Amino acid sequence: MTPEAIPFLPRGVRTHFDAVRNTPVLLGPERVLMLDQIGDAVLKEVDGESSLDAISARLAAAYDAPQADIVEDVCEYLEDLVNKGLVGLRHD
After folding, report:
1. What angle do CA 54, 35, 30 make, to 5 degrees?
2. Residue of 16, 65, 69 whose CA lies nearest to 40
3. 24 pairs with which residues across the strands?
4. Residue 34: which H helix or E strand, with range?
5. Can you give the pLDDT of all 92 residues of the chain as single tens digits?
């Protein structure tokens, strides 16, 4: 996974706020993944146009954290979701 890669939510996958559980979730075919505050913040930045580097820069600015730390965490988190089929990656 490179900083230039562009993450996107594949067809049939979306974020949603589950009012019953009072938590944000990632809905995919036949599965629901409850999101914590960090996962929700990362996925809100996944727009299918922004690179991992751009997403990390915005999160670093929002949370006043070093971008080098953020990009590592974002890549690790999204790589797990890619492996589960809940996020796709484009390499333009």
Report:
1. 110
2. 16
3. 17
4. strand 31-34
5. 888 999 999 999 999 999 999 999 999 999 999 999 999 999 999 999 999 999 999 999 999 999 998 999 999 999 999 999 999 999 87
Q: Is 28 left (phi over 0), alpha (psi -120 to 50) or beta?
A: beta
Six-digit token string for 66: 């070093």
The encoded tokens of residue 12 equal 């049939």
Q: Does residue 91 lie within any of the structural domains?
A: no
C-beta separation of 45 from 55 below 8 A: yes
Q: Which residue has the tokens 């230039």?
A: 4
In a domain, 2, yes or no: no
Q: What is the CATH number of the domain that holds 59?
A: 1.10.10.1150
Provide the number of structural domains found in the chain: 1
The model's pTM is: 0.89
